[in-house]
Automatic annotation (TrEMBL):
Spans annotated as Disordered: 108-164
BP terms from Gene Ontology: DNA repair; methylation
Organism expressing this protein natively: Letharia columbiana
Protein name, as recorded: Methylated-DNA--protein-cysteine methyltransferase
Catalytic activity, reaction form: a 6-O-methyl-2'-deoxyguanosine in DNA + L-cysteinyl-[protein] = S-methyl-L-cysteinyl-[protein] + a 2'-deoxyguanosine in DNA; a 4-O-methyl-thymidine in DNA + L-cysteinyl-[protein] = a thymidine in DNA + S-methyl-L-cysteinyl-[protein]
Amino acid sequence: MTSNLTSRWTTLYTRTLPTLAQSSQPTWPVHLDHCFARIILDAVIGNSTSSRPDETPTPWTAKLKSPAVKNMSPQQLEACIELGEAIAEGRIDLVELDQRSLTVRGKMLKGEKRKREDVPGDAAPDMKKSKKPSRSQQGDIRAAMGAPPTTPPKSPSPAAVDPALSSEITSHPTLTPFRRRVLLALCQVPSGSYTTYLALSNHLSSSPRAVGNALRNNPFAPRVPCHRVVAADGGMGGFGGEWGPKGKHNGKKVRLLKGEGVKVDAAGGRVMGSPWSGFK
């Protein structure tokens, strides 16, 4: 169980959140994996968001030996995953979490003078003249978090949408305008890639739940590849009208993804790699 939690946590902060930040969240204060780890670990381990008198907020390193991923309890891993997923789905204010994390580390908020002991890599993003950490420094920070440096792969171009299929979708008598938009957008996801409900919802200025509902009972499957949409944390999500890894059709979704070259973990519960979000 712990190894699965570790894998989920590592994927969440090294791939899922940075990819979302780069592709569809330009207003997020941080974009790098070690920054997401800092914010979440400070909140969960260091209690940076706590206002209780018996809990003194500190950097996570004051309470947990580095690397964090090798020393966290299952409960701590679950809490970090839960918070990370809430950030990915927009249910938590990342700006506020970042400011609280910087505060417990002695950093100043926007408009205030930085302290001399500030460490590159933890600086607030609105300090435009602050020196960026070198690649070697970023690598050292990532190693402390428990993961090696990552290089984001080049995203493939959108798939060409079949004009005949596009015409069928737009003229279908029972589809709402929103469902048509969702299905047409999904046609852009190339074979061998996957996207997420969150990425689709960001492209359509909607919500992951609305996208999930729109994909139910897809009348054009598999030509409109709803099997290429997964949850923000890499979980399989829904398929064939059922949800989750115990869903009746989950195995078929896994087989379809694997058949197209998408890597899935040994348990068949989560995809591996970065989600595609190159919608046009």
